[in-house]
Specification:
By secondary structure, this protein is mainly α. The protein has two helices and no strands.
Length: 93
């Protein structure tokens, strides 16, 4: 191969290396952006979840207390014995 051919080949290789470097740099940049956008999305998701919990927690607590009070009334009604109740009532004289 003549020396001119080697220089031409080296120039081609240099162009390919430069092109590969640009592609690699854009891939790394995209990878970094994807990572940070993922972190931001996760933070937004957790923030929405946390603030919805903080906002809805009093309502959920009220509903739970209402359910427990209704359940307590139901258990009281099941345990109510008419005959025991009537034993405690005094007979009119």
């Amino acid at each position: 191969m003549p020396p001119n051919g080697i220089e031409h080949r080296l120039d081609e290789i240099e162009e390919k290396v430069d092109e590969s470097y640009k592609i690699l740099r854009s891939v790394k940049r995209r990878q970094a952006l994807d990572f940070w956008f993922g972190v931001i999305k996760l933070m937004i998701f957790l923030g929405v979840f946390y603030y919805s919990y903080v906002f809805l927690e009093p309502y959920v607590k009220d509903i739970k207390d209402l359910y427990l009070s209704i359940e307590g009334m139901s258990n009281t009604a099941k345990e109510f014995n008419v005959f025991e109740f009537l034993k405690g009532v005094q007979q009119p004289q």
